[in-house]
Automatic annotation (TrEMBL):
Signal peptide per UniProt: 1-23
Alphabetic keyword roster: Extracellular matrix, Glycoprotein, Hydrolase, Secreted, Signal
Protein family per UniProt: Belongs to the glycosyl hydrolase 51 family.
Tree of life domain: Eukaryota
Keyword presence, Metal-binding: no
Compartments, record wording: Secreted, Extracellular space, Extracellular matrix
Protein name: non-reducing end alpha-L-arabinofuranosidase
Organism lineage string: Eukaryota, Viridiplantae, Streptophyta, Embryophyta, Tracheophyta
Enzyme class: hydrolase
Start and end residues of each Alpha-L-arabinofuranosidase C-terminal domain: 466-649
Keyword Transferase: no
Length: 676
């Protein structure tokens, strides 16, 4: 141990010189000495005394790392309207590519689309033919274009996909629509669109259902022909039929969110909302209505194009589908590089009011009717809006904020308004229902920040900790060290939930083909996914929102590495006390729990532990379950409330109140592992 510690220290010193390892070094210093004893005194004399807000734990979805485009939004085609290359023609059609060379075909873009807000379409001139008399015979597979989607489409045997496209031609057409393997050599599904010139001389919508007869998670969509002529394509979409409720959400990623039982969802950003420049910010009106008519936009903060299939409507639908309260963040006239002065901000205020009406207005209202036409006549429940993101220090923020605040409160008195200014240390100088608090830091710092809100004045607006995470060298791609520090931080927020109203980790998703921010909670590619340890820590808090916090005191004895909390919750008519404890140090800790008050006798119920051999361990596609919570039935003797906290671990113990009518078995030691 000593030798390896010395070795580790040298590695750390070396790494420190290179700018890493700092927190890890601190963490190991805590390890010195024998196993520690810690006592948690829990006062259960008033289990209903301190309710935890119903909306305490939620999620934050940002269009970052291809979380939506190429992620949760199940659309397989990237740049479906050919707009991504810009409006100058002929434009770049990336990631589309051609099949065939200039002797048989060529493609350009032009401004011939039938859609006013996205005029660019693809024009393909085929110069080869399948006519045996022709001097320029097409290759047998035809010529055309293909789209690889977002680093390969996940085409699965037996699954059905709806392909929709708009087509126009000067002659008859025979276009083969196929899914193929990544290099086009294997056809996984195919159908032909055949039409006479009279039918397609104007733009025509065509739809085919393709059923895959093979699997390739790096597949592509091809549009090919062996017929000479001029063809235009626009708005080409390929959607799996089995998205959540047919609403367009990729099932596996959707389920990962639902499993966290989030009580709210903040969207659509983050910096994504602000934009590097206002002209590239997310503006909700550009993202509603028929998908074919959406212009899409280049998100210049995370540097990628999105077709905006996941738009304002879909975010509200998502919130409804996962049973979470929507928290809409809108642009307040401020981007990273430009700002609208307060005297000119009214159009942005109106845009926000219209966006709220879109969600909440009845179906006869101007914007409520747009929502109704999209298939949701009933209003969405929108009770929280955030005026911008991380803009408090910008010169026009306060002025702009007040314009938004007054106008929104005048129209919707009950809406909670979230300010970007931090009220945790000093009171805000403006009205707000919540203030946004973001923290990205090293592990030891976040661990100690479990006490951040202990001394915050109780009489101001509540904190919305809408972004937190351990980052940098302490977290890498998402490791146990980061997760344990976050667990301690969350325990502190849970205990301070009289003044902390809402909490969410950031970012939620990353497509590994385009990591823009590390670490993240859920890691995926076209076909696989896993949760990082930070994801699994959040899963320990699924009982917390709406439960009660019990007053508790941790007597730390010879350990400074433990943070713990106690909550009371009810489920299936039974009463539980749940103890959660993080052991940030490298030695086991004996945690003695002393409960005083209304009930003090318990049956063991469930124990859950998250740990691993090394704090730097991470899950991966090849080992997605290396660090996941392990659940066992909790064995307890009479009066025995001492639990062992393994080194570097996060544990929860569900204690069933004795008088609850059903006894649970306490001796079955079959281990159950949480799986995705
Ligand atoms: O979560 C990633 C980014 O971090 C968010 O877009 C921004 O709000 C913060 O700076």
């Amino acid at each position: 141990m000593k030798t390896s510690w010395r070795l580790l220290k040298s590695v750390c010193i070396l790494s420190f010189l290179l700018g890493s390892c700092s927190t890890y070094q601190n963490l190991r210093l805590v390890d010195a000495g024998e196993d520690a004893n810690v006592t948690l005194q829990v006062d259960a004399s008033n289990v209903t005394g301190r309710p935890i807000p119903e909306t305490l734990f939620g999620i934050f979805f940002e269009e970052i790392n291809h979380a939506g485009a190429g992620g949760l939004w199940a659309e397989l085609v990237s740049n479906r309207g050919f707009e991504a290359g810009g409006q100058i023609i002929p434009s770049n059609i990336w990631p589309w590519s051609t099949i065939g060379n200039e002797s048989s075909m060529y493609v350009v873009t032009d401004r011939s689309s039938c859609f006013e807000r996205n005029k660019i379409a693809l024009k393909m001139e085929v110069t080869c033919d399948s006519n045996g008399m022709s001097t320029n015979l097409c290759p047998s597979g035809g010529v055309g274009v293909y789209n690889p989607g977002y680093w390969g489409m996940n085409i699965e045997q037996g699954k059905k996909y709806k392909v929709v496209l708009y087509v126009r031609s000067t002659g008859d057409i025979d276009v083969s629509v196929s899914f193929t393997s990544s290099n086009g050599s294997l056809t996984l599904a195919s159908q032909n669109i055949i039409a006479l010139a009279s039918e397609v001389s104007n733009w025509t919508k065509k739809e085919v259902i393709l059923e895959a007869n093979g699997t390739d998670n790096g597949g592509r969509l091809q549009l090919t022909t062996t017929r000479k002529g001029l063809i235009w394509f626009d708005q080409v979409s390929a959607m799996p039929l089995d998205t959540y409720k047919g609403h367009g959400f990729r099932n596996d990623l959707f389920q990962m969110m639902v499993d966290l039982k989030p009580r709210f969802i903040r969207f659509p950003g983050g910096c994504f909302v602000e934009g590097g420049w206002l002209r590239n910010a997310f503006r909700w009106k550009e993202t509603v209505g028929a998908w074919e008519e959406r212009p899409g936009h280049f998100g210049d903060i995370w540097n990628y194009w999105t077709d905006d299939g996941l738009g304002h409507f879909e975010f509200f639908q998502l919130a409804e589908d996962i049973g979470a309260a929507p928290v809409w963040v809108f642009n307040n006239g401020i981007s990273h590089n430009d700002q609208v002065e307060t005297e000119n901000v009214m159009p942005f205020v109106q845009e926000a009011l219209d966006g709220i009406e879109f969600a909440r207005g009845d179906s006869n209202s101007t914007w409520g009717s747009v929502r109704a036409a999209m298939g949701h006549p009933e209003p969405f429940e929108l009770n929280y809006v955030a005026v911008g993101n991380e803009d408090c220090d910008k010169p026009y923020y306060k002025g702009n904020y007040l314009e938004f605040y007054d106008a929104i409160k005048k129209a919707y008195l009950d809406i909670n308004i979230i300010s970007n200014c931090d009220g945790s240390s000093k009171p805000l100088d403006h009205h707000a229902d919540y203030y946004d608090f973001h923290i990205y830091t090293l592990a030891s710092n976040l661990f100690s920040m479990s006490h951040k809100f202990d001394n915050t004045p109780r009489n101001g607006p509540k904190a919305f900790v809408s972004e937190y995470a351990v980052t940098d060298t302490d977290a890498k791609n998402g490791n146990l060290l980061a997760a344990l520090a976050e667990a301690a931080f969350l325990l502190g927020l849970e205990k301070n939930s009289d003044i902390v109203g809402m909490v969410s980790y950031a970012p939620l998703f990353v497509n590994t083909n385009n990591r823009r921010w590390m670490p993240d909670a859920i890691v995926f590619n076209s076909s696989h996914l896993y949760g990082t340890p930070s994801y699994w820590v959040q899963q320990f808090f699924t009982e917390s929102s709406g439960a009660s916090i019990l007053s508790s005191t941790t007597l730390k004895g010879n350990s400074s590495s433990v943070e713990a909390s106690a909550i009371f919750f009810q489920t299936n008519g039974k009463d539980y006390i749940q103890i959660k404890a993080v052991n940030f140090g490298g030695k086991s800790v004996n945690l003695k729990v002393e409960v005083t008050g209304l009930f003090t006798k318990f049956y063991g119920s469930k124990k859950k532990v998250l740990t691993s051999g090394s704090v730097m361990d991470e899950n991966s596609f090849s080992n997605p379950h290396m660090i996941v919570p392990h659940e066992t039935l909790l064995e307890m003797g009479e009066e025995d409330l001492t639990f062992v906290l393994p080194p570097h671990s996060f544990s929860s113990f569900d204690l069933l109140k004795e008088s609850s009518n059903i006894k649970v078995p306490i001796s079955d030691s079959n281990q159950k592992t949480s799986t995705m």
